[in-house]
Amino acid sequence: MPRNPQRPVGGTGVLTYVGVAVLLVAAVAVAVFALTKNSGGNLSAVAAGYTPPTLSSAESTPAVAPSTSPAATASSPAPTRSAPASDHPARVVFVGDGYAHSDDATDAAHGFPALVGAAEGWKVDVVSCALAGYVAKGSCGTNYAGLIPQIVAASPDIVIVTGGRNDVPSAASTAAAATDFFTQLAAAVPAATVYAVSPVWDSSHGQAALGVVQQAVQTAARAHGASYLDIGEPLRDHPEFITAGSVLPNDAGYAALAAAIEKALPPPSAG
């Protein structure tokens, strides 16, 4: 019997599916051809200019928690070197008159020795005698030279000598007395760093003889290895810094003196 040309080969419906598939392929081919023709070759140009997307650095690398170290970011400032911390703060002795003793301050904590010591991290002792000076003998019965045994007893790393206003009446004798004091002090505490603070007056413009005392102290101090801290006149023209009816500073005056001394001190050693 002749084969029926309309009968599907291989089983019922197979030819139908094959035919459908062939028709779909043909349709796609026609569509692609038409699109290519109508685009005038633009598809090739688009393909040639196509750049595949690239991952950002955050997407292309594993997630890592940001470092909290200052050195981890480019914007962090370079580390600076500072004076090393010490478990043994410097022992510092302030020498002077009633100003050093913080007379008329609310308490010793408001005096310039305590204020400077707190700012510097020092352990502070004060060796003072009201009304004393390099020449003048104070209420304790001696001048600064007579205070040297107390200075030595404190085993200081640093000695800061203040005052001198009480020597104004004996300005002509200050050079010899200051030389004697700094000579004895250098021999008594040879390992200590010594500073001499320029003598100051109160809120008035003082006396011309104060300049003689200042020069005498500066010369004697430097001649014996001490550094001279010229703090100017922080109380001058500031009656609000002086206790009413007195020549002694109040808390504000002592704070001004402390600020002036702090400014005059050299920076701490970094090594």
UniProtKB/TrEMBL annotation:
<protein>
    <submittedName>
        <fullName>SGNH/GDSL hydrolase family protein</fullName>
    </submittedName>
</protein>
<dbReference type="GO" id="GO:0016787">
    <property type="term" value="F:hydrolase activity"/>
</dbReference>
<dbReference type="InterPro" id="IPR036514">
    <property type="entry name" value="SGNH_hydro_sf"/>
</dbReference>
<dbReference type="InterPro" id="IPR013830">
    <property type="entry name" value="SGNH_hydro"/>
</dbReference>
<feature type="transmembrane region" description="Helical">
    <location>
        <begin position="14"/>
        <end position="35"/>
    </location>
</feature>
<feature type="region of interest" description="Disordered">
    <location>
        <begin position="57"/>
        <end position="87"/>
    </location>
</feature>
<keyword id="KW-0812">Transmembrane</keyword>
<feature type="domain" description="SGNH hydrolase-type esterase">
    <location>
        <begin position="96"/>
        <end position="256"/>
    </location>
</feature>
<dbReference type="Pfam" id="PF13472">
    <property type="entry name" value="Lipase_GDSL_2"/>
</dbReference>
<keyword id="KW-1133">Transmembrane helix</keyword>
<feature type="compositionally biased region" description="Low complexity">
    <location>
        <begin position="57"/>
        <end position="86"/>
    </location>
</feature>
<keyword id="KW-0472">Membrane</keyword>
<keyword id="KW-0378">Hydrolase</keyword>
